[in-house]
Amino acid sequence: MNDHVELRPVAEADLPVIERLRTDPELAGPFLWAGWSDPHRFRRRYEQDGMLGEETGTFAVARAEEALGIVSYRRVPTAGSLWCWSIGISLLPAARGRGAGSRAQRLLVSYLFAHTTAHRVQAETEVDNIAEQRALEKAGFTREGVMRGYGFRDGRYRDEVLYSVLRPEVRGPGTP
């Protein structure tokens, strides 16, 4: 399945999938469900900039015309005027556990290194999200450590694992 996975700009037809992924607790899964929120915020963002801004953006993860989920990026300040990207992913349940996530994350890293001056791409995930940790490692990320009380979900603060990949670690034309 993962060889056929590609990233593309979000299309208007993808918005119902994105809304369901982010607002349906069963589709979001145990690590991404953050409570009920305005499902129309995605359509407003799409109308504003096609979900591709300079500080934050979202791509559809697709196989042929079928949307499997989304990957996103946001700019994170580091030191002084420096910054890096933090990325995230949300896939439909049928696409999970088959390599699509690792492939999509590799493609996003390649895109960000090819089209921005960032030196670092990072990702954070809950310590109990073993599947995502494996996906990040398969995508070429290095585990850096545990950030205590970094995230908040389901009424309590949770520890998260920080992963990163640096520009010099990328092999070939942007592929970690």
TrEMBL record:
GO terms for cellular component: cytoplasm. Keywords: Transferase. PROSITE patterns: GNAT. The keyword Transferase applies. It comes from the Bacteria. InterPro entries: Acyl_CoA_acyltransferase, GNAT_dom, Ribosomal_N-acetyltransferase. Residues 5-168 form the N-acetyltransferase domain. The keyword Disulfide bond does not apply. Signal peptide: none annotated. GO terms for molecular function: protein N-terminal-serine acetyltransferase activity; protein-N-terminal-alanine acetyltransferase activity. This is GNAT family N-acetyltransferase. It comes from Actinomadura montaniterrae.
